Amino acid sequence: MPEKRPGSSRLGTEATPPIRLHIENNPAAAPVYHVTPELFHEAIAKRPELAGRIESSFGCDPKQIEKPLREAEVLFIHGRLDATDLAKLAPRLKWIQSTGAGVDKLLPSVPAGVVLTSTSGMHVRKGGEYAMTALLMLNHRVPHFVTAQRASRWDQAFSTPIAGKTVVILGVGAIGSEAARLARRFGMRVLGVSRSATRNPAVERMYGPNELPAVLPQADFLLVTLPLTDETRGMIDRAALELLPAHAGLINLGRGDVIDNAALADKLTKGELSGAVLDVYPQEPLPSSSALWSTPNLIMSPHCGVDDGASYAESALEIFLDNLRRYAAGSKLNNVVDKSRGY
Amino acid sequence: MPEKRPGSSRLGTEATPPIRLHIENNPAAAPVYHVTPELFHEAIAKRPELAGRIESSFGCDPKQIEKPLREAEVLFIHGRLDATDLAKLAPRLKWIQSTGAGVDKLLPSVPAGVVLTSTSGMHVRKGGEYAMTALLMLNHRVPHFVTAQRASRWDQAFSTPIAGKTVVILGVGAIGSEAARLARRFGMRVLGVSRSATRNPAVERMYGPNELPAVLPQADFLLVTLPLTDETRGMIDRAALELLPAHAGLINLGRGDVIDNAALADKLTKGELSGAVLDVYPQEPLPSSSALWSTPNLIMSPHCGVDDGASYAESALEIFLDNLRRYAAGSKLNNVVDKSRGY
Q: Does pLDDT of B67 surpass 70?
């Protein structure tokens, strides 16, 4: 929570100082992620109570961010901020809003006194639907088919309906919960693993992170939607992958470094797992030299599976402006990142 | 309908002559399709009223089928029968039950006086689910991703949830109806095209086959589940494909010859359609020399998308034995093919 701003109780009076906001886009990111000045001005014009209180600047070049940071009180930024000493560079900074739900790349740059918020929850519909798509693809052996297709090889594989099969969801957050709901609608059995093991209406049983040996052998499918934190980095290592049945399929919509991708590729190549769908990678964009590209029984989407192409920037902006209203009023912000947990 | 068998009213008496049944498997087909003697004897043992009345023989070699055909009254057969003059070869034959739902390869061999029945309806669950899988894959640009993956290319494509989009289902039979139901559950708009244009609860509006110019331009997705008949052969020709919007995707789970596959490949290559999922082909197995294998934005499954791997032969056998009971009792058979329609 930011400290109460001086003057925030005199909202709308001329004496209230403006909130200095900087919006920084990532020139390497696809246009769908860009919060353009046009989008911002259009959205804030619908909030007259806020519009008069904001002084905004826009940037799309990491090399030129230092100047606006000197004055910024609020920063709305995509993905990452490669500043080595933000406390010094941005002495007035109180709050950073990420355009993304995952903040692993941003978190290391955030000074102790600065609040960080995410857009967690924004990816629910698209992300849940893409998770269900991946479950159905794995169930119906699509990774096998596309691998055979690359070799112009007619190679039948007969599957059965997905009802009654078990998906283990690792990280039952916003996307994981929606995936659980859709999986249940297809008659699947849903098990969950989370730090808190909090009950979820669509999940038959929740497990803690130390119970992988009990839960992974039950998986027909393992769906990973975990954020990257010190605790989750490498959580699905070779030993964890060995706990999965050979007919199982794996999906990663969380972060690439949660999984030992070399071990995964090895098991896919040996037929010790039936298939995988990856959307996230240890390095992004994944270099063309990566062995993953040609790994059999693997379908890869380039980190866009959970992101809605029609409304990403708009949805992130809505979450931000709702938080900005709260900030201006001195209220509690939504989606505040617990820095010790990392999400 | 078969004529009433002599003696069928004296069911169970010793004077009732046995029903001579021949079961012919296809050596080229996957084991999942084989109605083995073990499967048959196990299933018929559960029907004591039938068991004593059947004299069965089994074959799995087209070259040796002539001898059993000489005596057979009932034939249960997979896929096709390359007999040139079945009326002469099988003078006692009254009824052929196909193990499959599509009878296009079998129909030309069936003499005028012989009843042909299919297993239409058997593919509902698996087929409907595979159709929904294909719709979701197309919506989420999976054909684009696997094409980029072949070239080790990071190439993002941002989609939106499938709700509100329109699928046009061409051939609203058993699989098409189940696909419609699932699509509605995902919030899709469903339009249908069928010969009879009969209303279906999951279909917003039905069109006749001559209304393609009105319905195809509305399609975000075109799902083809048509049987192959004189009427449907080549129905989705280049002109029909031209009626689809460039962002549309196409699925064929019916028969390969319903579509002009060369025109489809051409449009996919030019980006005039966004993707396709094919399960059926003009020639099967599709030769490795086919240009389809390397067509961009195309995912191919080798004619097994709608077939349940755990229960194909068992399900076909159940349908057959239910019909066999009807046949023995002189009752109306299920799934009788209308030879003039071809399905």
A: yes
| Chain B closest-CA separation from residue A162 CA (Å) | 8
Please state, in angstroms and as integers, the Cα–Cα distance from residue B229 to each residue in B234, B274, B306, following that order.
10, 28, 19
On the question of a cis peptide bond just before residue B285, with omega within 30 degrees of 0, the verdict is: yes
Q: Which residues of A touch B137 (CB under 8 A)?
A: 133, 137, 142
Helix, strand, coil tally for chain B in percent (to 5): 35, 15, 50
Residue A185 CA, chain-centre distance (Å), reads 24
Do A152 and B301 lie within an 8 Å CB cutoff? no
What pLDDT score was predicted for residue B15?
A: 63
Kindly write down the DSSP assignment for every residue of A26-77, as one continuous string: -TTS-GGG---HHHHHHHHHT-HHHHTTEEEEEE--GGG-HHHHHH-SEEEE
Residue A237, phi-psi category: left (phi > 0), alpha (psi -120 to 50), beta (remainder): beta
Between A and B, how many residue pairs show a Cβ–Cβ distance under 8 A?
139
In chain A, % helix, strand, coil (3-state, to 5) comes to 35, 15, 50
Residues B286-320: tens digit of each pLDDT: 999 999 999 999 999 999 999 999 999 999 999 99
B255 is catalytic: yes
Q: What is the average pLDDT value for chain A, to the nearest integer?
A: 94
Chain B hits for A143, Cβ within 8 Å = none
B245, exposed or middle or buried, with CB in 10 Å at 0-12, 13-18, 19+? Answer: middle
Interface check for A104 against chain B (CB to CB < 8 A): the answer is no
Q: Which of B161, B290, B303 sits opposite A125 (nearest CB)?
A: B161
Kindly state whether A149 is in contact with chain B, defined as any CB-CB distance less than 8 angstroms: yes
pLDDT tens per residue, range B176-195: 999 999 999 999 999 999 99
- Share the mean pLDDT of chain B: 94
Tens of pLDDT, residue by residue over A57-105, are: 999 999 999 999 999 999 999 988 877 789 999 999 999 999 999 999 9
Of A151, A153, A146, A132, the closest CA to residue B299 belongs to: A146
Residues B241-257 pLDDT 10s: 999 999 999 999 999 99
- Write the pLDDT tens digit of every residue in A9-25: 444 455 689 999 999 99
* pLDDT recorded at residue A325: 97
Peptide bond into B287 cis (omega under 30): no
Residue B120 phi/psi, 5-degree rounding, is -50, 135
ipTM: 0.92
Known catalytic membership, residue A140 = no
DSSP string, B70-126: HH-SEEEESS----S-HHHH-TT--EEEESSS--TTTGGG--TTSEEE--TTTTHHH
Which of chain A's residues have a Cβ under 8 Å away from the Cβ of B314?
Answer: none
